[in-house]
Design a protein that fits this description.
This protein is of the alpha+beta class. Helix content is 31%, strand content 23%. α1 (3-38) runs antiparallel to α6, α1 (3-38) crosses α7 (216-240) and α8 (291-306) packs parallel to α9 (342-357).
Length: 560
């Protein structure tokens, strides 16, 4: 064969790899869309709190939906490999099986995140696995889900170890019965499982189509090349950066727990070690993180900062080694409570962004604002249980060349609940959604203003909530001379009533609960901001003329 023929063959194989990789990505997106549309829980259907993946028979991710929640995205392949190794080896799987688990130390990190896996067979051989992971709002236990006050996982709901919900296409009625007997809204919890399984069914069909068309050998070759390409991309970027150890730490308080996270990111050639030694010990409260969450959020931050443009796949994870002390807040032991673990791992993300930002300042962000989650629950006028999720989002922080964006669920990739759907499925009234002027983190590039939402109980019955408020302890700091943002707040319309930003509470008849998000810090000195941008912010009502003068050194009179 001539050199030209070799080149043509390589080009053809490379093109085939790209085409099939695109199909695998599209398959994961199609799975996500199916699961989201069919789900019963607010968090999946309206909040987009889910993830989907196409994996090899060994559990390596080769197609991940771009719509996935980052902390759940990398979790699916890790969960799958644990299940294959410790619970259901490949030889125990058969067509029609569906494996489920919500074990926080195996899956998504807290009980509400339920993993659903389906093996894919071709001519009797296991060729791949498809998986979905979604946040089902009702898993029993404490009302509302995202609690911070539990001490052990047993208080937070039902824990399902890796189990076959379907075996050879036959539903396991015993598992169904156990779940039904341990939750408040059985049709919702079981409906979410079926929605996630339906997404997997779509994935099974698409993977079989590819294998039928191209053959299992081509499928395996493309899978290996996808993993190799993504690994090479990250290694090449790491090799271009200066070797060294970049450190940062952050101190914070959640629900009366004073905590510190320390991170050291060491670049050594084409490899990266991220070590969280020096981080606080685990606590008696629902804000502990299983180690799997820390692995996935580290992988997410590294990818976003170093190789943001390529689709996600297993290869991105291979150059990264993550360590955290056992028994720490970032690597907690069973049976510590974990429902509010997002309040903690988001602080680890901040510390890691600042640490890596020393090596790649153009990719750094100011301190993020987190989110406020407000799951409301109780009984409606018919006596039926409901769960409806509201909240606020602190938005995307500013960067070296862009302003922040208000009201988006960063870094969670979630969505705001539509008011119409909230009021359709709950007896509450969502009174207001607004941006709050003069609350931005000022800088050459500013954050967006705070988001405010209000909820009124018009019924004659109490309604329960369980708040988790990111960045309620202090104002998020700026970066490179940027001013601090604003901390998250909570308020009741009832005189003298204080509402803690984290923990359970009751919304009495006639009472209104108001949440105001935190805002990220600014990026760069505010006095370096383009005066035209300051003028535009004043005109749009985002900042007042007084703030423009005092903080940005801008006087509208000077422009006239």
């Amino acid at each position: 064969m001539s050199e030209t023929d070799d080149t043509d063959t390589a080009d053809s194989a490379g093109l085939e790899t790209q085409v099939l990789w695109n199909r695998l990505q599209a398959t994961a997106d199609e799975m996500y869309d199916a699961a989201e549309r069919l789900a019963y829980s607010f968090s999946i259907r309206e909040g987009a709190d889910a993830s989907t993946a196409v994996m090899t028979a060994d559990g390596d991710a080769i197609g991940l939906s771009d719509q996935s929640v980052p902390v759940l995205s990398g979790a699916l392949s890790r969960t799958t490999r644990i299940i294959l190794e410790d619970h259901f080896p490949p030889e125990t799987l058969e067509p029609g099986d569906t494996v489920i688990t919500n074990d926080p130390w195996i899956g998504g990190g807290h009980l509400s995140d339920v993993v659903v896996l389906n093996p894919v067979f071709h001519d009797g051989d296991l060729v791949g696995i498809v998986g979905s992971l979604g946040h089902t709002d009702d898993v029993g236990g404490n009302r509302g889900g995202w609690s911070t006050d539990a001490e052990q996982v047993y208080e937070e709901g039902i824990l399902i170890p890796p189990t076959k919900l379907y075996e050879a296409g036959e539903r396991n009625d015993a598992v169904d019965s156990i779940i039904r007997s341990n939750v408040r809204i059985p049709h919702q919890a079981l409906g979410d499982l079926e929605a996630l399984r339906s997404g997997n069914t779509v994935g099974e069909e698409r993977v079989r189509e590819i294998v039928d068309e191209r053959g299992p050998e081509t499928f395996d070759r493309v899978a290996s090349e996808v993993i190799d390409r993504t690994e090479r991309a990250l290694r090449e970027k790491l090799a271009d950066l200066p070797d060294g150890t970049y450190e940062d730490s952050i101190e914070f308080t959640i629900a009366d727990h004073d905590l510190e996270i320390h991170v050291a990111a060491t670049i050594d050639g084409d490899a990266l070690e991220v070590d969280f030694a020096g981080t606080s010990a685990q606590v008696e409260g629902g804000i502990n993180c299983p180690f799997g969450n820390i692995i996935t959020i580290t992988e997410y931050i590294v990818k976003c900062m170093l190789v943001p443009d390529l689709p996600n796949a297993e290869g991105f994870f291979r150059p990264i080694e993550v360590t955290a002390p056992e028994g720490s807040i970032l690597n907690c032991d069973r049976p510590k409570a974990t429902m509010g673990r997002h309040l903690t791992y988001s602080r680890a993300e901040d510390a890691l962004i600042r640490a890596l930002g020393q090596a790649v300042p153009e990719s750094a962000l100011s301190e993020m604002a987190g989110i406020q989650l407000a799951p409301f629950s109780g009984a409606d006028e018919n006596g039926d249980e409901f769960i409806a999720v509201g909240g606020t989002a602190g938005g995307l922080p500013p960067s070296a060349d862009k302003d922040g964006i208000p009201g988006v669920y960063f870094p969670y990739n979630g969505q705001n609940t539509p008011i119409e759907m909230f009021e359709r499925y709950s007896p509450l009234r969502w009174e207001e959604t607004a941006l709050v002027p003069d609350t931005e983190g000022a800088g050459e590039h500013r954050s967006g203003p705070a988001m405010r939402t209000s909820y009124r109980n018009p019924t004659d019955r109490p309604v329960y909530f369980a708040l988790t408020s990111g960045r309620a302890d202090r104002d998020p700091s700026g970066f490179r001379g940027g001013r601090s943002g604003k901390r998250a707040t909570t308020a009741s319309s009832s005189d003298g009533k204080e509402v803690p930003p984290n923990g359970p509470g009751t919304l009495e008849p006639g009472e209104t609960l108001t949440l105001v998000s935190a805002t990220p810090g600014g990026y760069g000195d505010p006095e370096d901001r383009d005066p035209e941008r300051v003028a535009a912010d004043v005109e749009r009502g985002l900042i007042s003329e007084e703030r423009a003068r005092d903080v940005y050194g801008y006087d509208p009179a000077d422009e006239s």
